[in-house]
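Problem: given the chain below (269 residues), write out its structure.
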Amino acid sequence: MRLPLPVILALAALAACRSSSIAPAAPAPTPAASAVRLNYASGNQLLAAMHDRYAGTWYHSLTFVQKTSRLQPDGKWKVDTWYEAMKVPGRLRIDFAPLTGGNGVVYAHDSAFTLSNGRALPGQPAINPLLLLGFDVYANAPERTAALLRKEKFDLSVVHVDTLFHRPMIVVGARAGDMLTKQFWVDAEHLYFVRTLEAAPREPTKVQDVRFVDYRREGGGWMAPRVEIHTDGKLVFTEEYSDVKSNVALDDALFDPSKVKTTKHWFTP
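Solution.
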């Protein structure tokens, strides 16, 4: 079952204006073609390469404060604050401000649990593809990542090469020129996730384009402090992360839906 789009896309995976607390990242240089592998026979090969590149070095946890902006029908932007914590692989907790409201969502055990007034509602099977591709891929066995992506209807047998942000990309799930079939894009040099494309929910003739941008090094891996969602080329949803901390000690109980009322929250104002 799919949760509402803002919840599914709230990350790491998951603001209208760049936060002043995050210094602009210098554009990454375009690598020479000879320095980058482009000849992946399948998505399975690419997932294995992503895993092997950072196995043992990628951060195991991450916390950040998120500025979340949604474009409203009247053309104005609605801005909210979310507090996010993750343990890699597979666990993500999102708390909506104010923290005293007890509202949010927890991803754990391949399920999503909505938090309402400090109480976790019954979980429902759910995979967050952005959590999976942006973070879990470096900790999961490649075979598990591949199985979960196939469950999400990505065709791992179709691979082509493209360019985005003046950088070579490996695209899995669709043929060149096809922008509607579900697909994900990976930076060919650094092997981090950059983009998904698919038909927009409830508007199958339009393209939904989700991008992780402004990547920088973080805790032995990488982190994109800005996420953008475009529908048919129009920016409609953004996330910006501040107060980013990696490899922090997080209580496992934070991700246990049965303990949301009794566990001390990680964020200290």
